[in-house]
Write a sequence for this structure.
């Protein structure tokens, strides 16, 4: 289950089933490796004359030893992946008067009366205010859409489905276009470089400044798209 419900709140997180699939998948890969390690090592030796030392070592184990050892190693790797996935996956808790989003050690609190639209847009969960400004955009790939919809509808939030109601207003960013001022282009340039360099903090800072200017940004096919909020565009 990815949803926990009580009288005052509903919490939506990555389903436990997915975590168990990672653990079991790791164990299954380890089990398969017990039978495939020796043929792989021999093939590499015949082809190149060498093979990685850990692979050669594993290939020398009798199958009766390799099977439990590699299965346990695979299970351990799957457990580590599951723990990492759970840590990085957002947790959304919907209350009667506010919603809270916890992600990567950070927390965001949004009042119910601030919220004019909630929806999923591709991989993202998006919250807009009454001026169509983005209050939040978080990765929601790991969260069940049905659980999100039921949680928000339970407490009367304006759920808008799985398509951005302002989809047609997004424009691919082209550096220097006159539709944006120099400061906005600088921030989009900064965010683009930060994402390329995997500097999540710098990318988030640039995004916060763009939102303060009334500009929503999303990523599509490796490129940035932007939309100015209604009051900015008019």
């Amino acid at each position: 289950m990815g949803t926990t419900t009580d009288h005052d709140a509903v919490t939506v997180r990555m389903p436990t089933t997915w975590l168990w699939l990672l653990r079991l998948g790791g164990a299954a890969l380890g089990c398969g490796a017990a039978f495939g390690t020796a043929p792989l090592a021999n093939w590499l030796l015949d082809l190149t004359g060498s093979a990685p030392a850990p692979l050669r070592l594993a290939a020398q184990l009798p199958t009766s030893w390799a099977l439990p050892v590699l299965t346990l190693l695979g299970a351990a790797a799957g457990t580590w992946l599951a723990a990492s996935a759970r840590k990085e996956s957002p947790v959304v808790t919907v209350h009667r008067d506010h919603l809270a989003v916890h992600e990567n050690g950070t927390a965001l609190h949004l009042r119910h009366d601030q919220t004019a639209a909630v929806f999923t847009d591709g991989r993202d969960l998006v919250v807009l205010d009454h001026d169509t400004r983005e209050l939040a955009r978080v990765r929601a790939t790991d969260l069940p859409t049905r659980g999100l919809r039921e949680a928000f509808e339970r407490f009367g939030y304006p759920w808008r489905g799985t398509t951005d109601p302002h989809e047609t207003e997004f424009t691919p960013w082209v550096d220097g276009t006159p539709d944006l001022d120099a400061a906005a282009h600088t921030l989009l340039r900064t965010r683009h470089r930060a994402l390329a360099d995997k500097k999540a903090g710098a990318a988030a800072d640039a995004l916060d400044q763009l939102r303060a200017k009334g500009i929503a940004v999303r990523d599509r096919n490796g490129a940035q798209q932007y939309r100015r909020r209604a009051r900015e565009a008019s």
In short: The mean pLDDT is 84. Residues 92-163 form a domain with the Signal recognition particle alu RNA binding heterodimer, srp9/1 fold (CATH 3.30.720). Residues 133 and 212 are 9 Å apart (CA to CA). DSSP finds seven helices and eleven strands in the chain.
